[in-house]
Amino acid sequence: MKNELTFGQLLKNMIANSGFSNTDFYTKLQIKKPYFYEIIGDRTSPPPPEKQFAIIEILNPDNETKAKFFDLAAEARNETPADIAKFFKENDYNKQIRKYIYK
To answer: Which of 53, 59, 65, 91 matches a 20 to 30 Å C-alpha distance to 47?
Structure first.
């Protein structure tokens, strides 16, 4: 059995390393206590991309942690990592990529 880090575990670690209490964090993120504990307990999917970016802004982790955060969230939500999706959207790479997909 693999002992892999989950999104909830990573978020708990990030909050602990930031110096915020759980209450301070979920209040600043503007989510309710039960939802917060569902997220860190891995009993629900990670929050949507806009909240993911808010978490990163609040906690300000290093780049390696940011990448892991977005990757774990995307894996659990079965989506493209939010940071990568945002980059593609902001830089209009969709048309260029489709040239390779539909050649």
So the answer is: 91
